[in-house]
Amino acid sequence: MNLSTHQAAAAGIDLQRKISVKFFPAPLGLAPPWVSPCSGSRPAMGLRPARSMSTTVVNAIVQLRQWKQDEEPDIVARTTLITAYSNAGNLKLAREVFGGTPLSMRDTVFYNAMITGPDNFTFTSVLGALALIVEDEKHCQQMHCFMLKSGTGLVTSVLNALISAYVKCSYSPLASSSLLMGAAKRLFDEMPERDELTWTTMITGYVRNDDLDAAREFLDGMTENMGVAWNAMISGYVHHGFIDEALEMFRKMHLKGIQHDEFTYTSVISACANAGLFKHGKQVHAFILRTEEKPKPDFSLSVNNALVTLYWKCGKVDEAREIFDKMLSRDFVSWNAILSAYVNLGRIVEAKSFFKEMPERNLLTWTVMISGLAQNGFGEEGLKLFNQMRIEGFEPCDYAFAGAITSCAVLGALEHGRQLHAQLVQLGHDSSLSAGNALITMYARCGIVEAANCVFLTMPYLDSVSWNAMIAALGQHGHGLQAIELFDQMLKENIVPDRITFLTVLSACSHAGLVKEGRHYFNSMCGCYGITPGEDHYARLIDLLARAGKFSEANDVIESMPFEPGAPIWEALLAGCRTHGNMDLGIQAAERLFELMPQHDGTYVLLSNMYATAGRWNEVAKVRKLMRDRGIKKEPGCSWTEVESKVHVFLVDDTVHPEVQAVYNYLEQLVLEMRKLGYVPDTKFVLHDMEYEHKESVLATHSEKLAVVFGLMKLPLGATIRVFKNLRICGDCHNAFKFMSKVVGREIVVRDGKRFHHFRNGECSCGNYW
Questions:
Q1: Which end of the chain is more exposed for a tag (fewer CB within 10 A), N or C?
Q2: What is the mean pLDDT of residues 637-664?
Q3: How confident is the model at residue 176, as a pLDDT?
Q4: Assigned CATH class of 361-459
């Protein structure tokens, strides 16, 4: 007869006894463990079973071993064994069966069997195990009742285990943390004796439930200075960002003579790293070197790992590497810390070299490297590494997918990004916050702002990164008013904007020409949100004003800045001068840039273009000669488009692409149709002194035109053409695509180095404001 656990619970202990007879019969001549050896009958109600049953226990073990050869014992058999061992007085074997039973198999009857006759140690172990699976206060109260019935209500170790159960249950999102912590505190108050574990458990519980004041009250109420409890309090302060309080606690520990250990040091060093307090962190480092003459290996490893993180987060990567190189033992944390240092500071060449040197790699290693490549513009390498990771047997997590999706955003590889999105859904990562944020950016940078918005609206949870990504997406596509509306909605959702939020809002205002709104948001940064504008914020404001031709106001802003203007400020001003032909101010901005960034090609190109537009060819020649003399080469313009999951790249005056001649022929036919609608090539964008006819030929070889025409040739009728360019789109190409979109009756989307242009039916989404 097969009996379920629930049937056993209903029938009670008698049924368990019958089962034990069936599966573990006593040897011939011996009675079952609950039968009196004298009377041969069952004992009267309330009498304890006989305990001199060693032969029966041995027989049970033999039977259990025999069974294990055939099949794994179920929960009924395990419960019966615990009952038999407990009744025979062999609690050690009962504990072994209990400890060897997986949590997933255990039920109420199983726990009841273990609690029927334990000693203090067993009861503590059982309560500790139960604490792992309790879900609400009711379970804790049941455990509390068992404890009182057992007579162990005054045993410190048992009470500690019960307090731990209440505290751990309070972490559950479905539980009432205040009620459970209140119950734990009542137990604490009633305890006749408390030890270090008691205090530490309570302090940790309040810290984990974000009640630092209560935790500190407990700490201050301690009669003894217990280092573990102080460590828990310091760790809580660090975790919640209260750096000053954490450092003050560390100082008080020292003054009170409380012994520091590796947990103390790692928490304090982490506090300094998170707050950028390099001098404080270095002082702690010096203190450790003075006081810890012969640190244990575990101490050295954890503290050195924290020090490596401190130094690189404070910009001292080379010093971090020195600490790493001197470490006698290293683990994944050590290696990944140095890799993260190189990646976060953009030292990708060193990161790649270090990655190859690593003796082992875990999932975090691959994820850091993939994300680092993507964030630093190495999209193709990021995707290759993602594929290599999978080949080597690593199942990517949502963060690894986020890195790969960001790589697609860099490349504009829409189809590849869509495939990764589908895989995310299949693997159950579609609710991931990091992956969702990456998808918003990917779809936006691949030209489909509608898909980005769909991801944003369907994400189960949004953080400030999500809102920033969507505001940036709308701004890049020229939807400035919608970006501002989304920002206002963000505020209504009580999401606090950060410095990145204002960068995206200011950019959106700049692209849409919303000068008044841009001024307002810039001024509100400090006045309303306590955010001091950085140079990048000032650069966006200058860009906003210069694009609108408000040079006098832009100059006033530059003069009123609380620091010396750097390259981003003068670049924004020079770009505006180039757009509006403000030669004098443009030359002034270029001269400052020559001083700050003499090797940057963009300054020479913009200045040369300004002279060329004004017909000052002698000045153009001087700028180009200066470039040659300084060994500066202009970054070549290139454009690319994706057809059937393959990226096709075109250069200016391209002769390399295998189908380029067919592209030139089709472009010539399209231009004939475009001229009928009024298109006239704008030769002022040919920045060379040559005959008019030659200038028209030069305009026809621009890379963005070749890529768009190739897309028209290869993609299905009605499909949107999406082209990406590394530099700013040419003015003539911008005009040509408006006519081209009308001739072919298709949407053409071009992403240049600054923003997106959507050409539909002879118009552009930028409204010619770019």
A1: N
A2: 91
A3: 79
A4: mainly alpha
